[in-house]
Design brief:
Layout lengths: L1 H22 L3 H13 L3 H6 L3 H6 L2 H8 L4 H8 L3 E10 L2 E11 L1 H12 L7 H18 L7 E13 L2 E5 L1
Antiparallel strand pairs: 1-2, 2-3, 3-4
């Protein structure tokens, strides 16, 4: 009986540790979770990492409308090519500033390439426009295969605040 009570006590201590651990993320862990949520298109999870001041300015529904990555397939393909490293984080009391190095497809270059290619215009006839659109989409899908994506690396700064329920992103 004593062994059973001891075993239950250990079990509850382990559970309490992991429950408490989830609510006491470091600033770096909270930022990494936020970035993973944004890149993965999980807007509700990302919203939960925003500061209370940001949430007061924009409710979840509006945040989702403004920040949704749209089609899940496209978000997975593009998001799968984005990586980041939290290079440095300076914590001063309840505030933190993080420098994050992000590597992602060079979206401006790619969009400019696509628009430049389409500058001639889409034909008016249905079958001609179908052929034109399909050929162009296929061309860019082939051109920007995973190994051929033009990439760029940037350094971005994020601000965080420690609130009663943990570290939050200040946008």
């Amino acid at each position: 009986m004593l062994a059973l009570i001891g075993l239950l006590l250990i079990f509850f201590l382990v559970v309490a540790y992991f429950v408490n651990r989830g609510s006491t993320l470091t600033a770096q862990e909270a930022l990494a979770n936020y970035l993973h949520a944004v890149i993965g298109g999980r807007t509700e999870a990302a919203y939960n990492y925003l500061s209370s001041a940001n949430k007061a300015e924009q409710n979840l529904l509006d945040y989702k409308a403004a920040n949704s990555l749209g089609n899940g397939l496209i978000a997975q393909v593009i998001g799968g090519n984005i990586s980041f490293v939290v290079e440095n984080i300076d914590v001063t009391g309840d505030r933190a500033t993080a420098a994050v190095v992000m590597t992602a497809p060079d979206f401006p270059l790619m969009i400019n390439d696509i628009f430049h290619s389409l500058a001639a215009g889409i034909p008016q006839q249905t079958l001609e426009s179908l052929t034109f659109v399909c050929q162009n989409i296929s061309h860019f899908l082939d051109k920007y295969q995973r190994d051929n994506l033009p990439m760029q690396t940037t350094k971005e700064t994020f601000s965080l605040l420690r609130e009663s329920d943990g570290w939050k992103i200040k946008r």
